[in-house]
Automatic annotation (TrEMBL):
It comes from Guillardia theta (strain CCMP2712). The active site is at D2. GO terms for biological process: pyrimidine deoxyribonucleotide catabolic process. It comes from the Eukaryota. The lineage of its organism: Eukaryota, Cryptophyceae, Pyrenomonadales, Geminigeraceae, Guillardia. InterPro entries: 5'(3')-deoxyribonucleotidase, HAD-like_sf, HAD_sf. One of its GO terms (molecular function) is 5'-nucleotidase activity. This is Uncharacterized protein.
Amino acid sequence: MDNTVVDWDGMFIKRYGRAIGANEARQQEIESKIRNRKHFEIEHNFDEHERAQVMEVIASPGFFAELEPLPGAIEALKEMVERGVDVRLVTAPHPVCPGPCANEKYDFLLRHFGSDWIDRMIITRDKTHVVGAALIDDKPAVTGSAASPSWNHVLFDQPYNRQVEGKSRLTEWVNWENILADALKL
């Protein structure tokens, strides 16, 4: 879900700026740093002395519940379901706050998709055991204990995964059908 269905970075930018008391210029610096980040793990984009604050922001109450959807994400996922695709929202709770994070992801789902989507959410720290045709994820390499997952990893385009080659890439939800047609047999 994070940075694939929801604008995780946008929430982080807002909350981190508030947490450090950033003025407008500093807030713009933070936004540029995050929107152009090189590392998937957010804390690796910060100096060592800033990392504790980064983790506090992620673990702050409401962080995951208040996330906003990326443009077209909800509409695309609902359209897939209408067309017979068995859509599952596979998401990993953040290790700094696994329980609250999981609960808040359900809150997000209820608010934006409705209660009929509850059974479509799979919360797991190891996505390699989930069965499916395609996994749309922003993480450059999705790894776990299953050596050969059943799904094809489709990258949701982000600055920190642009060095990855040889994978299908979804740059915006409006293009979902063009990218996923083969994998989903549409």
